[in-house]
Automatic annotation (TrEMBL):
Database matches in SUPFAM superfamilies: Winged helix' DNA-binding domain
Species this chain originates from: Streptomyces olivochromogenes
MF annotations from Gene Ontology: DNA-binding transcription factor activity
Name of the protein this chain belongs to: MarR family transcriptional regulator
Gene3D superfamilies: Winged helix-like DNA-binding domain superfamily/Winged helix DNA-binding domain
Superkingdom in the source lineage: Bacteria
SMART domains hit by this protein: HTH_MARR
Coiled coil (UniProt feature): none
A single BP term in Gene Ontology: response to stress
Residue ranges of domain HTH marR-type in the record: 1-147
Amino acid sequence: MQETPRWLDPEQKTAWDSFIRMQEKLIGRLSRRVQTDSKMSAADYIVLVKLTEAGGRLRFLELANLVEWEKSRMSHQVTRMTKRGLVAKEECLDDGRGAFIIATPAGYAAIEAAAPLHVEHVRRLFIDALTPEELSTLAQISQRVLDHMEKQPD
C-alpha cells in the first residue's frame, strides 16, 4: 500500500516556489551575462572556476562531483573545452583508468578576464539586495540544508 504524499502547506509551498523562482532567474541572468561578457558558457565558467580554485588540476571524477554533474555530461563538457584550448586532459600515471583535467594558459586567461565581470553581476543582482545580517542568515540556512542533504539518500 502506497503512503499518502506529505503535501506542502501554503507557507511551505510559497517558500519553495519563491526559492526556485529566485534561483532560476538568478542563474539564468548570470549565465547570460557570462556568455555575453566572456563568450564562455556558464558550464565553461564553472568548470574553470573549480579547476583554478583547486590549483588548476583535478581528477576527472573529482571535478564532476564538485559541480554535481554526471560523468557523461562532464565528459562532453571537457571535450568541448579541450577543442577550444581551455582545458587539457592528462592520463593518471598511477591509475590507468583515471584522468586529470588541467586548466591551460588559455583557460586561466579566460577565467581571469571573466571573473571580475561575473562578481560585479553577482553583487548587483544578489549581494546588494541583502543586508549583512540577511547574508549571514542565508549562509547558515544554506549550510543547514547542505548538511541535511548529505545525510539523505541520493
